Amino acid sequence: CVNNLLQEEAFKKREFDEICYELTPGWFRNPHRSIFGTGNYDVNVIMRALKMKGYTVKWFDKRKSLDSDIDYDSLTGLIVNQNKTGLLSKIWASRHWIAYPNIDGVYYDANSTVRKPNPFKSLDEL
Questions:
Q1: Helix, strand counts (H, E) of the chain
Q2: Are 11 and 2 a contacting pair, CB within 8 Å?
Q3: CA neighbor of 100 nearest in space, from 113, 124, 114, 117
Q4: What's the CA gap between 45 and 49, in Å, rounded?
Q5: Are 63 and 92 in contact (CB under 8 A)?
Q6: One pLDDT digit (tens) per residue for the chain, 126 residues
Q7: Contacts of 18 (CB under 8 A, 6+ apart)
Q8: Is residue 100 classed as helix, strand or coil in its secondary structure?
Q9: What is the DSSP letter of 67?
Q10: Which distant-in-sequence residues (6+ apart) come within 8 Å of 45 by Cβ?
Q11: How far apart are CA 83 and CA 60, in angstroms?
Q12: Cα 75 to Cα 4: distance, rounded to the nearest angstrom
């Protein structure tokens, strides 16, 4: 989702894996990435990667109210973590990161499951 947010291949899998091992060195099964090696990383890796590129990251917890003073025009974009749906998700709880980059004032759905980023018509739709 980091690369989708930035709209470039800013990081390769190897670089995300290196961040995982910087966060928790010496672990055989690193808690910051998928045990299947699918590229599914936790929020700590995503935040570290974005900070390495000079971005400021603000955490939002849906259990708290959203700041009403957010200037959406000034953001590079949003990253959302949501439950996966489908047959396997009923057996194995799974989460999925989705990037919503802000490109020239328009937010896009840059989910890795879609062929190309789709623009939102308005912030309300986002």
A1: 4, 4
A2: yes
A3: 117
A4: 6
A5: no
A6: 999 999 999 999 999 999 999 999 977 788 888 877 777 899 999 999 999 999 999 888 777 776 667 889 999 999 998 876 666 555 555 678 999 999 999 999 998 888 888 999 998 898
A7: none
A8: strand
A9: P
A10: 16, 19, 20, 23, 32, 33
A11: 16
A12: 15
Q: Scanning the structure block, which residue is given the tokens 């990435």?
A: 33
Place of tokens 């396997």: 88
Q: What value does the CA radius of gyration of the chain take, rounded to a whole number of Å?
A: 15
Rounded Cα distance between 40 and 48, Å, is 15
Kindly state the tokens that stand for 14: 């190897």
Four-CA torsion 65, 69, 75, 80, nearest 10 degrees: 10
Q: Which two tokens stand for residue 49?
A: 């990667």
Classify burial at 80, counting beta carbons within 10 Å of its beta carbon; exposed 0-12, middle 13-18, buried 19 or more: middle
